[in-house]
Write a structure and sequence with these properties.
The complex is a heterodimer of chains A (281) and B (466). Chain A is 30% helix and 31% strand. Chain A has 281 residues and is an alpha/beta fold. Chain A has 2 domains: 88 residues, Elongation Factor Tu (Ef-tu), domain 3 (Beta Barrel), CATH 2.40.30.10; 111 residues, Nucleotide-binding domain of ferredoxin-NADP reductase (FNR) module (Rossmann fold, 3-Layer(aba) Sandwich), CATH 3.40.50.80. In chain A, strands 6-1-2-5-4-3-7 form a 7-stranded antiparallel sheet. In chain A, strands 10-9-8-11-12-15 form a 6-stranded mixed sheet, with helices on both faces. A two-stranded antiparallel sheet of chain A has the order 13-14. Helices cover 34% and strands 16% of the residues of chain B. Chain B is built from 18 helices and 16 strands. The longest helix of chain B has 24 residues. Classes of the chains: A alpha/beta (281), B alpha/beta (466). Chain B: This is Sulfide dehydrogenase (Flavoprotein) subunit SudA.
């Protein structure tokens, strides 16, 4: 069992848990992820490592309550434990030779982009961070990002924080203003990453995306997470999850993410009753 | 006077039309009377040819004689001396090519049902006997085992019996390897696997789950943590795909994914278990091995109307066990032999709607000695399916070889070892099972685990003396 050391509610749907997992904390690097299982009948879900503390032996995850498992996870408190926590998995991000970078987070993707920005900033790279949310109530990690960036742009789809538009609009503007990025790192919903890649492609700016396909084992033994990159089939859990965004078949990724939509709805409905029980107990 | 019946005492089974709608075990096992009757068919030969066919050298005539005498507890103990997982072997070993193939009674009539008797003894013992396990005296030496499949568990069990402190590192949340994620409940009940594993724990074997060697820890760090030897039994879990168009459509699974969802994650119980699986109405399983049979029979049990086995050679070349093919046919699986997929077709939303195939004819024998299938021109046709499961084989996962220095592997990614000792190119590191041979059988993996345990013991003793 893996104990929850700390819980933070970042916005009504997004929660942070710091989990005691010394072996994972020892090796974790930005770009890697873990697979967890909340309880014994539970499913295995992948979540990116948002932060780690090697001395304390803890790993932080940030997740949005989108279905049965994340709702259940979100109902847990500090002191509770989860059944399984396995990692670090996937290939760590590579930043060699980068002098100037834009790190882009869309919604919850901001939590995954955070360790990347932190690492780059720590390496002395000049970092622009662009994060976007649907509205101002959903903004997360603004202060944390401010600390690990040279410039921070926070935008909302509805303009409720004073800046209206998508992250891709801000990026385009920055590039047109003459920002010379060696690399753009984009993490968020597949459609957002696709749009960012469309922005950078004409300029030939290297663009790294972190893909989020359906996973089971996370160790390369099933191929459930396969994606097409540059015409080749790759397993995101072992070959990624970082890939060259200009080579990714995003339409296929988006399609494959929909395979279990109906099952996910059934599972969530069923859990809504059970969770009611947990929360009222 | 031995029972001279030419046939095995039949084993009761669930009716095919009932069992193809449930995940309960198909074969129900012998009663005490049936076991005694079958055991009396054994001639107790002096030269024991059956034993030479068993990779873990179970003392077959001795345990069968004990069953014939009604001494079931002693029969089990006799088996357990050399086999740590008898309830599993009795069920999944291909006895027809191992112990039973060598049985003298098989020359005229059917061989003695050694597997069924082994299974009987193990099941009887589990049901009736609860004895505190006698742990061997500890020798204070630590050995690490990577992977908790049949090879790792056997190696761990044998080393624990010799007094070693054994830690097994497993990547999944549950121990058992292919026994828990691959072989379905209807062939090998999972609570039984768990009981065999619990028995190993009682011997002092520690199992640490959620440990991906190559990621969470690597082999060098295991030595740093004081392990004197390492056994790699990480299997061959990397699925192969065909490389034909349409393989990434929604509804195409590797057999590993399909079976892992069903067996390990219990997706057949969804939504009581949280993991879903797509339940197709018309399912094609590509391949002709045991994994293909398991996937096809599982798909049928999930409620499919039509399940096809699509295999490019003929039935004679099928690598699956005869018994499994027979069971699959009884359950209504449709065999499309000498048929090869050329592409998978999708609808406008990207879901599978069919599989284009060609008919094959068998040509000259190829390098493997089997007649090579060649496509028949103009034989293209479409099989209307909504699910395709690819079961054309697996190879070793590169995770360990790519993170362990000095470990020699061949061009197929299999770890190279000395056949007699399972010693790898790296000192103190041993390997066995599918990680060395590529995908093979449970019992061969167990045999390798056993051999490696002996070699590890000799290695550590020699090191202590020098």
């Amino acid at each position: 069992m893996y104990r929850i050391l700390r819980k933070e509610i970042l916005n009504p749907q997004v929660k942070l848990l710091e989990i005691e997992a010394p072996y994972v904390a020892r090796k974790a690097e930005p770009g890697q992820f873990i697979i967890l299982r909340v309880h014994d009948e539970g499913e295995r879900i992948p979540l990116t490592i948002a932060d780690y503390d090697r001395e304390k032996g803890s790993v932080t995850i940030i997740f949005q309550e989108v279905g049965a498992t994340t709702r259940l996870l979100g109902s847990l408190e500090a002191g509770d434990a989860i059944a399984d926590f396995c990692g670090p998995l996937g290939v760590a991000s590579h930043f060699e030779g980068v002098k100037k970078a834009a790190v882009i987070g869309g919604g919850l993707g901001t939590a995954i982009a955070y360790p990347q920005a932190k690492k780059l900033f720590g390496l002395g790279v000049e970092v622009d961070v662009i994060i976007g949310f649907r509205n101002k109530d959903l903004i997360i990690l603004e202060q944390e990002m401010a600390k690990v960036s040279n410039r921070l742009f926070v935008t909302t789809d509805d303009g409720s924080n004073g800046t209206r538009g998508f992250v891709s609009d801000i990026l385009k503007q920055r590039i047109e203003e003459g920002a010379q990025y060696d690399v753009v790192i984009a993490i968020g919903p597949p459609i957002m990453m696709k749009v960012v890649c469309d922005v950078t492609r004409p300029y030939g700016i290297k663009t790294i995306v972190s893909l989020n396909p359906v996973m089971i084992d996370g160790t390369g033994m099933c191929g459930g997470c396969r994606v097409t990159v540059g015409g080749e089939t790759k397993f995101a859990c072992v070959d990624g999850p970082d890939f060259d965004g200009h080579l990714v078949d995003f339409d296929e990724l988006i399609r494959r993410l929909s395979i279990y939509r109906e099952d996910e709805r059934i599972s969530l409905e069923r859990h809504a009753c059970r969770l009611g029980g947990v929360l009222n107990a | 006077m031995p029972n001279m019946s030419l046939k095995k005492v039949p084993m009761p089974e669930q009716d095919p039309q009932v069992r193809n709608r449930n995940f309960s075990e198909v074969a129900l096992g012998y009663t005490e009377e049936m076991a005694i009757e079958e055991a009396q068919r054994c001639l107790n030969c002096k030269h024991r040819p059956c034993m030479s066919g068993c990779p873990v050298n179970v003392r077959i005539p001795e345990f069968i004689t004990l069953i014939a005498a009604g001494e079931f507890e002693k029969a089990y103990e006799k088996i357990y001396e050399t086999n740590s997982l008898p309830a599993i072997c009795g069920r999944v070993c291909p006895q027809e090519t191992q112990c039973e193939q060598q049985c003298v009674r098989g020359i005229k009539g059917e061989p003695v049902a050694i597997g069924r008797l082994e299974r009987f003894a193990a099941d009887w013992y589990m049901k009736h006997i609860t004895k505190p396990v006698v742990k061997s005296p500890r020798n204070g030496k630590k050995v690490a085992v990577i992977g908790s499949g049949p090879a790792g568990l056997t190696c761990a069990g044998d080393l624990a019996k010799m007094g070693y402190d054994v830690t097994v590192f497993e990547a999944f949340h549950k121990a058992g390897g292919v026994l828990v994620y691959g072989i379905p409940e209807f062939r090998l009940p999972k609570d039984l696997v768990q009981r065999e594993i619990d028995a190993l724990k009682a011997l002092g074997v520690e199992i640490r789950t959620n440990m991906v060697i190559g990621k969470t820890l690597n082999v060098d760090e295991l030595f740093e943590e004081g392990y004197e030897a390492v056994f790699i039994g990480s299997g061959a879990g990397l699925p192969m795909f065909m490389g034909i168009p349409g393989e990434n459509l929604n509804g195409v699974y590797s057999a590993n994914e399909f079976l892992t969802r069903i067996n390990l994650m219990k997706a057949y119980k969804f939504p009581e278990a949280d993991t879903p699986v797509f339940r197709g109405r018309n399912v094609a399983v590509v391949g002709g091995g045991n994994v293909a049979m398991d996937a096809a029979r599982s798909a049928k049990r999930l409620g499919a109307d039509n399940v096809y086995i699509v295999y490019r050679r003929s039935e004679a070349e099928m690598p699956a066990r005869l018994e499994e093919v027979h069971h699959a046919k009884e359950e209504g699986i449709i065999f499309k032999l000498l048929t090869n997929p050329t592409r998978i077709l999708g609808d406008e939303k990207g879901w599978v709607r069919g599989m284009e195939c060609v008919e094959m004819a068998l040509g000259e024998p190829d390098a493997s000695g089997r007649r090579r299938p060649v496509p028949k021109e103009g034989s293209e046709h479409v099989l209307e399916v909504d699910t395709v499961i690819i079961a054309i084989g697996t190879s070793p996962n590169p995770l360990i070889r790519s993170t362990t220095t000095g470990l020699e592997t061949n061009k197929k990614g299999c770890i190279v070892v000395d056949e007699n000792t399972c010693q790898t190119s790296r000192e103190g590191v041993f390997a066995g099972g599918d990680a060395v041979t590529g995908s093979a059988t449970v019992i061969l993996a167990m045999g390798a685990g056993k051999k490696a345990a002996k070699a590890i013991d000799e290695y550590i003793r020699a090191k202590a003396q020098s």
